[in-house]
Design brief:
Elements lengths: L2 H73 L4
């Protein structure tokens, strides 16, 4: 190979290395961003679970209240 060819090949390889380094930085950045999205999504799942738990508790309370009213109606012979 001539000196010109070697120099051209080295320039190309340096450019490829630079491109790879930029791609690696982007992949690292996207990995961090994806991790943040996963954390946020886990928080949303937790919030929804807490919300559902609250609805379930209200449902149990309402069921107890209905049962109490039914007992009162029977005692007072309203039904």
């Amino acid at each position: 190979m001539t000196d010109e060819t070697e120099s051209l090949m080295l320039d190309i390889l340096r450019a490829v290395r630079g491109d790879i380094a930029r791609i690696e930085r982007k992949v690292d950045e996207h990995t961090v961003r994806l991790g943040r999205i996963e954390v946020a999504l886990a928080g949303l799942h937790r919030d929804v679970a807490h919300h559902d738990e609250g609805w379930a508790e209200q449902s149990v309370r309402l069921d107890r209240l209905c049962a109490s009213f039914e007992r009162l109606e029977r005692r007072l012979q309203l039904s």
